[in-house]
Amino acid sequence: MSWDGLAGIVREARRAGDRVGYFAALYRQVTVEVRAAIHGGLFDDGARMDRFDTLFGNRYFDAYDAWRRDRSGPRCWRETFGLLDDADTVIVQHLLLGVNAHINLDLAVAAARTSPGEAIHGLRRDFLLINDILARVVLVVQDSLGALSPLMSLLDQVGARTDERILDFSVRQSREEAWYNAVLLAGQNEEEREATIERLDIRAAVLARLIARPGGVVRPAMQLIRSTESDDVPAVIAHLDHAMERSSARPGTG
Questions:
Q1: How many alpha carbons lie under 13 Å from residue 75 in its C-beta half-sphere?
Q2: 3-state SS assignment for residue 48
Q3: By the number of CB atoms within 10 A of the CB, which of 125, 179, 224, 251 ranks highest?
Q4: 231: nearest Cα among 12, 22, 8
Q5: This protein's superkingdom (predicted)?
Q6: Which is nearest to 200 in space by CA: 221, 174, 165, 167?
Q7: DSSP three-state, residue 54
Q8: What number of other Cβ atoms are within 10 A of residue 235's Cβ?
Protein backbone atom coordinates (compact mmCIF):
# COMPACT_ATOMS: atom_id res chain seq x y z
CA MET A 1 0.00 0.00 0.00
CA SER A 2 1.11 3.52 -0.76
CA TRP A 3 0.92 4.66 2.88
CA ASP A 4 3.52 2.10 3.96
CA GLY A 5 5.83 2.95 1.07
CA LEU A 6 5.58 6.67 1.81
CA ALA A 7 6.20 6.11 5.51
CA GLY A 8 9.37 4.25 4.54
CA ILE A 9 10.56 7.06 2.28
CA VAL A 10 9.86 9.64 4.99
CA ARG A 11 11.66 7.55 7.61
CA GLU A 12 14.72 7.00 5.41
CA ALA A 13 14.78 10.67 4.34
CA ARG A 14 14.80 11.80 7.99
CA ARG A 15 17.66 9.44 8.74
CA ALA A 16 19.68 10.58 5.71
CA GLY A 17 18.74 14.27 5.81
CA ASP A 18 17.32 13.97 2.27
CA ARG A 19 14.94 16.70 1.07
CA VAL A 20 12.93 14.09 -0.87
CA GLY A 21 11.20 13.68 2.48
CA TYR A 22 9.56 17.12 2.20
CA PHE A 23 7.00 16.22 -0.44
CA ALA A 24 6.83 12.60 0.73
CA ALA A 25 5.76 13.84 4.18
CA LEU A 26 3.04 16.01 2.66
CA TYR A 27 1.83 13.20 0.42
CA ARG A 28 1.84 10.65 3.25
CA GLN A 29 -0.69 12.83 5.03
CA VAL A 30 -2.86 12.92 1.90
CA THR A 31 -2.93 9.11 1.85
CA VAL A 32 -3.81 9.01 5.57
CA GLU A 33 -6.72 11.41 4.98
CA VAL A 34 -7.91 9.48 1.91
CA ARG A 35 -7.79 6.23 3.87
CA ALA A 36 -9.84 7.79 6.65
CA ALA A 37 -12.40 9.00 4.09
CA ILE A 38 -12.60 5.51 2.56
CA HIS A 39 -13.11 3.86 5.96
CA GLY A 40 -15.61 6.57 6.89
CA GLY A 41 -17.75 5.81 3.85
CA LEU A 42 -17.38 9.30 2.39
CA PHE A 43 -16.77 8.10 -1.17
CA ASP A 44 -19.49 6.71 -3.45
CA ASP A 45 -17.27 3.67 -4.08
CA GLY A 46 -14.63 3.04 -1.44
CA ALA A 47 -13.10 0.03 -3.17
CA ARG A 48 -12.70 2.03 -6.37
CA MET A 49 -11.01 4.87 -4.49
CA ASP A 50 -8.69 2.39 -2.83
CA ARG A 51 -7.60 1.30 -6.32
CA PHE A 52 -7.31 4.95 -7.37
CA ASP A 53 -5.17 5.77 -4.33
CA THR A 54 -2.87 2.83 -5.10
CA LEU A 55 -2.50 3.75 -8.79
CA PHE A 56 -1.90 7.40 -7.87
CA GLY A 57 0.74 6.48 -5.30
CA ASN A 58 2.46 4.05 -7.65
CA ARG A 59 3.00 6.87 -10.14
CA TYR A 60 5.10 8.63 -7.48
CA PHE A 61 6.97 5.48 -6.46
CA ASP A 62 7.77 4.61 -10.07
CA ALA A 63 9.13 8.12 -10.70
CA TYR A 64 11.12 8.01 -7.45
CA ASP A 65 12.59 4.58 -8.28
CA ALA A 66 13.48 5.64 -11.84
CA TRP A 67 15.26 8.73 -10.54
CA ARG A 68 17.18 6.79 -7.91
CA ARG A 69 18.11 4.11 -10.42
CA ASP A 70 19.43 6.13 -13.35
CA ARG A 71 18.03 9.67 -13.20
CA SER A 72 15.23 8.70 -15.60
CA GLY A 73 11.43 8.94 -15.33
CA PRO A 74 8.92 11.62 -16.34
CA ARG A 75 10.37 15.04 -17.17
CA CYS A 76 8.40 16.86 -14.47
CA TRP A 77 9.61 14.46 -11.78
CA ARG A 78 13.19 14.77 -13.03
CA GLU A 79 12.87 18.55 -12.63
CA THR A 80 11.53 17.99 -9.11
CA PHE A 81 14.09 15.45 -7.90
CA GLY A 82 16.90 17.30 -9.65
CA LEU A 83 16.58 20.20 -7.18
CA LEU A 84 16.80 18.10 -4.02
CA ASP A 85 20.47 18.97 -3.54
CA ASP A 86 20.05 22.64 -4.46
CA ALA A 87 20.66 24.58 -1.27
CA ASP A 88 18.97 27.70 -2.71
CA THR A 89 15.57 26.05 -3.23
CA VAL A 90 13.15 26.97 -0.44
CA ILE A 91 10.95 24.45 1.35
CA VAL A 92 7.72 25.58 -0.30
CA GLN A 93 9.31 25.18 -3.73
CA HIS A 94 10.21 21.56 -2.99
CA LEU A 95 6.63 20.93 -1.89
CA LEU A 96 5.06 22.62 -4.90
CA LEU A 97 7.36 20.88 -7.36
CA GLY A 98 6.06 17.55 -6.07
CA VAL A 99 2.44 18.76 -6.02
CA ASN A 100 2.81 20.07 -9.58
CA ALA A 101 4.08 16.76 -10.97
CA HIS A 102 1.57 14.68 -9.04
CA ILE A 103 -1.48 16.80 -9.96
CA ASN A 104 -0.60 17.96 -13.46
CA LEU A 105 0.59 14.55 -14.66
CA ASP A 106 -0.17 11.66 -12.31
CA LEU A 107 -3.68 12.54 -11.17
CA ALA A 108 -5.32 12.35 -14.60
CA VAL A 109 -3.44 9.18 -15.53
CA ALA A 110 -4.47 7.42 -12.30
CA ALA A 111 -8.11 8.49 -12.68
CA ALA A 112 -8.31 7.27 -16.29
CA ARG A 113 -6.76 3.93 -15.38
CA THR A 114 -9.14 3.52 -12.44
CA SER A 115 -12.23 4.18 -14.56
CA PRO A 116 -11.51 3.78 -18.29
CA GLY A 117 -13.98 4.59 -21.06
CA GLU A 118 -17.45 5.80 -20.11
CA ALA A 119 -16.89 4.70 -16.49
CA ILE A 120 -14.83 7.87 -15.96
CA HIS A 121 -18.00 9.97 -15.66
CA GLY A 122 -19.12 7.98 -12.64
CA LEU A 123 -15.84 8.89 -10.91
CA ARG A 124 -16.39 12.65 -10.93
CA ARG A 125 -17.83 13.11 -7.44
CA ASP A 126 -15.20 10.92 -5.78
CA PHE A 127 -12.48 12.56 -7.88
CA LEU A 128 -13.54 16.00 -6.62
CA LEU A 129 -13.59 14.73 -3.04
CA ILE A 130 -10.09 13.28 -3.26
CA ASN A 131 -8.98 16.60 -4.72
CA ASP A 132 -10.58 18.48 -1.83
CA ILE A 133 -8.55 16.30 0.54
CA LEU A 134 -5.37 16.97 -1.42
CA ALA A 135 -5.97 20.73 -1.45
CA ARG A 136 -6.77 20.79 2.28
CA VAL A 137 -3.55 19.00 3.19
CA VAL A 138 -1.51 21.28 0.90
CA LEU A 139 -2.99 24.38 2.55
CA VAL A 140 -2.47 23.07 6.10
CA VAL A 141 1.14 22.21 5.32
CA GLN A 142 1.71 25.60 3.66
CA ASP A 143 0.24 27.36 6.68
CA SER A 144 2.49 25.35 9.00
CA LEU A 145 5.61 26.59 7.24
CA GLY A 146 5.81 29.76 9.31
CA ALA A 147 7.64 27.87 12.05
CA LEU A 148 10.29 26.73 9.55
CA SER A 149 10.33 29.68 7.19
CA PRO A 150 9.79 32.90 9.17
CA LEU A 151 9.61 35.15 6.09
CA MET A 152 7.06 33.08 4.13
CA SER A 153 4.67 36.02 4.46
CA LEU A 154 6.86 37.86 1.95
CA LEU A 155 5.21 35.78 -0.77
CA ASP A 156 1.86 37.35 0.12
CA GLN A 157 3.35 40.81 -0.01
CA VAL A 158 4.80 40.34 -3.50
CA GLY A 159 1.55 38.79 -4.74
CA ALA A 160 2.95 35.30 -5.26
CA ARG A 161 0.61 33.61 -2.82
CA THR A 162 -3.09 34.36 -3.24
CA ASP A 163 -6.05 31.95 -3.30
CA GLU A 164 -4.01 28.76 -3.29
CA ARG A 165 -1.56 30.30 -5.75
CA ILE A 166 2.18 30.36 -5.14
CA LEU A 167 4.76 31.18 -7.77
CA ASP A 168 2.29 31.04 -10.68
CA PHE A 169 1.08 27.60 -9.69
CA SER A 170 -2.62 27.30 -8.91
CA VAL A 171 -3.72 24.13 -7.17
CA ARG A 172 -7.39 24.88 -7.88
CA GLN A 173 -6.91 25.43 -11.60
CA SER A 174 -4.68 22.37 -11.91
CA ARG A 175 -7.29 20.14 -10.27
CA GLU A 176 -9.91 21.27 -12.80
CA GLU A 177 -7.53 20.63 -15.68
CA ALA A 178 -6.66 17.19 -14.26
CA TRP A 179 -10.33 16.15 -14.49
CA TYR A 180 -10.57 17.35 -18.09
CA ASN A 181 -7.43 15.39 -18.94
CA ALA A 182 -8.68 12.31 -17.07
CA VAL A 183 -11.85 12.26 -19.22
CA LEU A 184 -9.71 12.76 -22.32
CA LEU A 185 -7.33 9.90 -21.43
CA ALA A 186 -10.17 7.55 -20.46
CA GLY A 187 -11.61 7.75 -23.96
CA GLN A 188 -8.36 7.32 -25.89
CA ASN A 189 -6.65 4.28 -27.34
CA GLU A 190 -3.14 3.32 -26.18
CA GLU A 191 -1.31 5.33 -28.84
CA GLU A 192 -3.39 8.44 -28.22
CA ARG A 193 -2.91 8.06 -24.45
CA GLU A 194 0.85 7.91 -24.79
CA ALA A 195 0.84 11.14 -26.83
CA THR A 196 -1.42 12.88 -24.30
CA ILE A 197 0.68 11.75 -21.33
CA GLU A 198 3.79 13.03 -23.13
CA ARG A 199 2.12 16.41 -23.65
CA LEU A 200 1.03 16.61 -20.00
CA ASP A 201 4.54 15.72 -18.85
CA ILE A 202 6.11 18.44 -21.01
CA ARG A 203 3.65 21.04 -19.70
CA ALA A 204 4.22 19.99 -16.07
CA ALA A 205 7.99 20.19 -16.63
CA VAL A 206 7.60 23.76 -17.91
CA LEU A 207 5.58 24.65 -14.80
CA ALA A 208 8.26 22.99 -12.65
CA ARG A 209 10.90 25.28 -14.14
CA LEU A 210 8.70 28.31 -13.40
CA ILE A 211 8.27 27.18 -9.79
CA ALA A 212 12.00 26.47 -9.44
CA ARG A 213 13.16 29.72 -11.04
CA PRO A 214 10.52 32.42 -10.59
CA GLY A 215 11.08 35.81 -12.16
CA GLY A 216 10.39 39.41 -11.20
CA VAL A 217 10.22 40.47 -7.56
CA VAL A 218 9.59 36.89 -6.43
CA ARG A 219 13.19 35.81 -6.98
CA PRO A 220 14.81 38.19 -4.46
CA ALA A 221 11.96 37.47 -2.04
CA MET A 222 12.73 33.75 -2.31
CA GLN A 223 16.42 34.38 -1.66
CA LEU A 224 15.56 36.33 1.47
CA ILE A 225 13.15 33.63 2.62
CA ARG A 226 15.80 30.95 2.09
CA SER A 227 18.33 32.90 4.17
CA THR A 228 16.09 32.59 7.26
CA GLU A 229 14.80 29.04 6.77
CA SER A 230 15.78 26.05 8.85
CA ASP A 231 18.65 24.00 7.41
CA ASP A 232 17.86 21.05 9.68
CA VAL A 233 16.40 18.73 7.02
CA PRO A 234 15.35 15.92 9.41
CA ALA A 235 13.59 18.46 11.66
CA VAL A 236 11.81 20.02 8.68
CA ILE A 237 10.61 16.61 7.50
CA ALA A 238 9.37 15.76 11.00
CA HIS A 239 7.51 19.09 11.19
CA LEU A 240 5.86 18.63 7.79
CA ASP A 241 4.98 15.02 8.60
CA HIS A 242 2.84 16.08 11.57
CA ALA A 243 1.20 19.22 10.16
CA MET A 244 -2.27 17.66 9.92
CA GLU A 245 -2.09 16.33 13.48
CA ARG A 246 -1.23 19.78 14.81
CA SER A 247 -4.02 21.35 12.76
CA SER A 248 -6.59 18.88 14.10
CA ALA A 249 -5.41 19.44 17.66
CA ARG A 250 -5.91 23.22 17.54
CA PRO A 251 -9.16 24.56 19.05
CA GLY A 252 -11.82 25.13 16.41
CA THR A 253 -10.19 22.86 13.83
CA GLY A 254 -10.62 19.26 12.73
A1: 14
A2: helix
A3: 179
A4: 22
A5: Bacteria
A6: 174
A7: helix
A8: 13
